[in-house]
Amino acid sequence: AYTAEPFVPKRGGLPALRRAAADCRGCPLHREATQTVFGAGEATARLMLVGEQPGDQEDRQGEPFVGPAGRLLDRALAEAGLDPADTYVTNAVKHFKFTRAEPRKRRIHKSPTLRETTACGPWLAAELARVEPELIVLLGATAGKALLGSSFRVTQVRGTVLEEEIHGRPERLVPTVHPSSVLRAEDRDGAFRGLVSDLRVAAQALG
Ligand code: URA
Ligand code: SF4
Question: Where does the record place the Uracil-DNA glycosylase-like domain (predicted)?
């Protein structure tokens, strides 16, 4: 089975993890992508945000949430009163998955499979163990399935505080939609307000 497990160092902090992740070959996604996009933020962050996978801009720049979805997320965090400096941001899958409609044309995002998400899971587990956040915000279905299993449905639990044991540690999680889904929504303002209102639940839970 595909797995990142043999590439994940047992010791060391986030910088050691990030260095090792750059050479991960745990699944085929590293072949077409430019680079590994590891999480960003301080190990002392109280809040961890988990997205799906890097997009086109993230793949080029090597940083999570620096493209259009990231800008929207930053605005939503600010409106919800969450401090980006107190946030660790990462993705369930660390390599960009895409197709091209035609050779040398624009790269189109493709959702990772459950196999790929599962393969990349040891990196997310290692980030959780280093950061030990007080609260996790799940941005969309892929992040939810990665941490809570394949039966996760974002519409059923968004904007609520879940308490679940993950890798042997009790965690509090607030699921919400993925910021990219807000960009695609017909009622973009309404979808944005929904995201902000879920993030306010997270802000309240953090205290
Ligand atoms: N979408 C994500 O899920 N993560 C990113 O880093 C960028 C876009
Ligand atoms: Fe490794 Fe994850 Fe990249 Fe697959 S997607 S190669 S498991 S870092």
Answer: 38-200
- Which atom of ligand 2 is found nearest the CA of 4? 7
What are the structure tokens assigned to 42, written together? 């301080």
* CA trace torsion 204, 46, 121, 184 (10° rounding): 50
* CB neighbour list of residue 195: distance below 8 Å, 6 or more residues apart: 76, 176, 177, 179, 182
In DSSP terms, 90 is beta-bridged to 50
Q: Is any ligand 2 atom within 6 A of the Cβ of residue 73? A: no
Task: Indicate whether residue 119 lines ligand 2 (CB < 6 A).
Answer: yes
CATH code of the domain covering residue 101: 3.40.470.10
Could you list the residue range(s) of the whole structural domain that residue 29 is in? 5-206
| pLDDT tens-place string over residues 195-204 | 999 999 999 9
Query: What ipTM was assigned to the predicted interfaces of this complex?
Result: 0.96
pTM above 0.90, yes or no: yes
Which distant-in-sequence residues (6+ apart) come within 8 Å of 35 by Cβ? 22, 59, 62
> 66: CA distance to ligand 1 center in Å?
8
